[in-house]
Write a structure and sequence with these properties.
It is globular, with a radius of gyration of 13 Å. The strands form two sheets. A four-stranded antiparallel sheet has the order 3-4-6-5. A hairpin with a 5-residue loop joins strand 5 and strand 6. It has one domain: RRM (RNA recognition motif) domain (Alpha-Beta Plaits, 2-Layer Sandwich). The chain is 30% helix and 32% strand. It is an alpha+beta fold. The protein starts with a strand and ends with a helix.
């Protein structure tokens, strides 16, 4: 994980997209629905490259966060972005990753 500075000048962890060759994962989606899914279903919502397959997303999650994804569901929203709903095997892992990224 590389350190990035937010507006207040504090360091926070960001995605190190150089770890995998194609930048599959663009960023984490943090809406009210996304936060609810983290708490209730142990899932994180990522905005990913539109051309990436579920297997590529799974490999990128493994390389970036060193955790296994149990299930990945994808959809393309009205803005043309591809969303990946990633469910983790370990309970509470979605919340832990979200805290590491500084989104919760």
């Amino acid at each position: 994980m590389e350190k990035k500075k937010n507006a207040a000048g504090q360091k926070k962890e960001g995605l190190d997209l150089d770890k995998h060759d194609s930048s599959t994962i663009k960023f984490v989606s943090m809406t009210e629905k996304s936060v609810k899914i983290i708490e209730l279903e142990n899932k994180l919502v990522f905005i990913v490259d539109r051309k990436s397959s579920k297997e590529e997303i799974k490999k990128a999650i493994k390389q970036t966060f060193d955790v296994d994804a149990e299930e990945i569901k994808t959809c393309i929203d009205q803005k043309g972005r591809k969303k990946a709903f990633v469910k983790f095997k370990d309970p509470g892992m979605a919340g832990e990753i979200a805290m590491r990224l500084g989104v919760i």
